[in-house]
Each structure stands twice: as structure tokens, then as C-alpha cells.
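[step 3/7] fold_predict: job queued, chain A
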Amino acid sequence: MASITRSGSAHWEGGGKDGTGHVSTQSGVLKEAPYGFNARFGDGRGTNPEELIAAAHAGCFTMALAFQLAGAGLTAERMDTAAKLSMEQVEGGFRIVRVALTLKAKVPGCEEATFQELAATAKANCPVSKVLNAEITLEATLEG
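[step 4/7] structure written:
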């Protein structure tokens, strides 16, 4: 398979705390979405790198699980994943220390043990999990 390249961009003006910026994606889904100190470290308007990583991780893991299920001859009726990213101040700055994935899924015909095994494989092998230098946990619930 050929290499896949995706891109994003950021623009910033001003200092760290008083500056403002915006981020955009190649697809245009994000186009000049505002971000800044208050959106990142407080509850200000705009996005921030950490919530974008969390959303990317939730999406990547969920799609990876869909492929794992398909490989086992199963199809999810629905899967809902939340990713809660934790960033802590460490010596020299901040670090993403953990991502807690929480999944609720309805997969007709899937046994609990199979579901847990496939979910764990998806967690370990989705590209976003592989790039993060953080603890990744998973709470996977198979709904009846």
C-alpha cells in the first residue's frame, strides 16, 4: 500500500498567554478554528491540541475495532467511544500522560470474551495509540 500523507496547519500571533491562533486541516473540516491559552488551559472559546488528539484517538480506535470485528465476521450496530486525555505539568513543561478510552458498543452475535479481545487489539494497534507516549486504558462495554 502506498504511503498516506495528511496535513494540518497553525497560525499564531502574539505571546504565549496573550496570543491567539487558529488551526486548519487539509480536508477543510477545521478551517481557521480558533485556539489560544484560555482554550487550552482554561475554559475559553476555541479548540486545543489535546482535545483534537483525544477526538483523533477515539475515531482511530473505533475504526480499528470496526476492522477487527469485520475480520471476525461481525458488524457493530453502533459503537460510541469517548477519549479522556490527561496532561500534567512535568519538569520542562507539560506532557500527555494518559488517555482513558471508554467504549459502549452493540455488536449482534458477539460474545463478551471475543469483544474484549478485539477491543484490546484495536487499542494496541490503532495508529494514534502507537504514536502516543502515554498510558492508554480501555473500558469496553458490550451492550445486549
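[step 5/7] annotate
The chain has two domains: 8-41, 53-142.
The beta strands are 8-13, 20-25, 33-36, 78-90, 93-106, 135-142.
exit 0
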